[in-house]
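Friendly challenge for the regulars: who can give me the structure tokens for this chain first? No prize, just bragging rights.
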Amino acid sequence: MNPTYLQKEACFDWAGDWRSRRAHTGLEANLRRAGIPEEAFWSRYASWVDSLQHDGYPGMLLDHVMSHVRADSTVLDIGAGTGTFALPLSRAARHVTAVEPSHSQAAHLHNVAERHCTRNITIIEKRWEDIGHDAMGTFDLVLAAHSLQMDDLTEALRRMCRAARHRLLLVHTAGHSLSRVLQELFGIEPGPDYLYPYHVLCGMGFQPQIEMVTREYHVNLDLQLNILRYNPGLSAAQCETLRDRVESQGMVFHRHSAPWLTRSCTDALITIAL
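First reply, four minutes later:
Bragging rights claimed.
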């Protein structure tokens, strides 16, 4: 973590810039440009999950989260997706409440929980912004992992802090190995990174702790390009241009005659003790 970078001018409007950047770099904006309905993306994403079992996620992040859970803990998982965190948390905590607005992702989580006879997960199929302020109650641990898709970041984080009795954990991107290539080739700006929620929380009077977790992994190149067709919305021609670039840079190798891409991603784990 670069302390100088974190000390950007105090007058900078982090929440306002978050909203502005999300308007043209957020998932919803990317899908609109590609002409893809949001639920169509999440439906496909659920099918990609099984193919991404070797990307190393959540890896050490899960270990960090689990270290804050006891047998009597209650956990709120905001943007639970298909249960990457919710399912293992349910095996350690007393109860997990999973908030997931995508019907396809919530259905996938429900089916997996049923298959494993998991009875201590409650799934709420709503956006965090649409849940009443006091409807949720409080939880020992509140987690939001790669799910800060809210335009009003300040209000979303304020409500998360109110919902957490002991600890709030946020996982948000700090960068990945394709961001510079996408910007150089197509002018695609990366979405707002972890510094935004960090500084918004500081502005609210909290003192967040940050830990960086980097994972390196391999993903089938054709699958990766298919995902990029949805987000950030690359065209077929752009995908081929990207294929040529990563091959020329030695980022591709072949496994059983199929091309695989070498990737790295760094996530920031932001922790607040309450």
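Residues 103-115 form the longest helix (13 residues). The CA atoms of residues 218 and 262 lie 5 Å apart. Your move, everyone else.
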